[in-house]
Amino acid sequence: MNPLIRFIPAFLVRFFASPYVAGDSLDKAIAVVAKLQRERGMLSTLDLLAEDIRTEAQAQSNLDTYLRMVDAAAAMPVESRPTLSLKPSSYTTSPLQHDGDALGSREAMFAIAKAAAAKGVALTIDMESRHWTDFTLQTLREMCAQGMTHVGIVLQTRLHRTEADLDALPKGLRVRLVIGIYREPAEVALADKPAMKERMLAFAGKLLSRGHYVEFASHDDTYVRRFVEQVVPKAGVGRDRFEVQMLYGVPRDRFLAELRKQGITTRLYVPFALGWDMAIQYLRRRLDEYPAMVWLVTKNMFSRR
User: Fold this and answer.
1) For 113-141, how does the pLDDT look when each residue is reduced to its tens digit (9 = 90+)?
2) Using CA atoms, how far apart are residues 10 and 15, in angstroms rounded to an integer?
3) Which of 66, 235, 248, 266 makes the best surface tag, with the fewest CB within 10 Å?
4) What are the domain boundaries of the chain?
């Protein structure tokens, strides 16, 4: 990690993180989800910030928390029920990006998926760095083979391999398209953001035409409009076949309200932590991968809209 980022005081990191994190407990996150639905008509997807796991106790705590998240989501009305997003690295002390074997991750993900299936809660498997892509897609295929139709996947358009991965997806899958935040070498990924966003539009069209449900996750109003006004009509699908997603805390309230007036489903990605220490670790990693975030956070605080 960049030494400058490592030595940013924790209180300052928390200051930058707080608008984007829904608290330091599951109860606080559920309260945020309920408020978003009640006051703004927004759906949510909940994510536990839990990376860089060092002990088996942490991995077990993350699994236990997700099982409680399933129960909490299932207790909410179906029309406002959040989906749950999970990262494979949250359940293992042997991460693939450090030449590990992801021991325990698959089993934990299956335990969560089975609990969610029993209670009618949808899951989305997040995509992490390139080291996890094969593992994540293989786990998804195994779940789909067992009839777990409530499980969706995230694909990153920056990776060169993603177009081929589209062709290998199980039929009728729910897919969240993102450009991705992980820094990757040039031989495996694009570095140009406009090019990544153009891929989002192209890939969204392919997914819709093949019968998938598309979750278009972008804060770029221009590309969201192009998706809604150009890609969707060309694919010939209704508004029940896609939604637009953004990150909790990013100031796009007016634009999201405009989309909802058009009958378009909107959803916010709502992360929370089990204590601010983990949230601070998360933001330090994001800052290391994307230093411009400091400027963006500062700008967002003064440009609420």
Assistant:
1) 999 999 999 999 999 999 999 999 999 99
2) 9
3) 235
4) 22-272
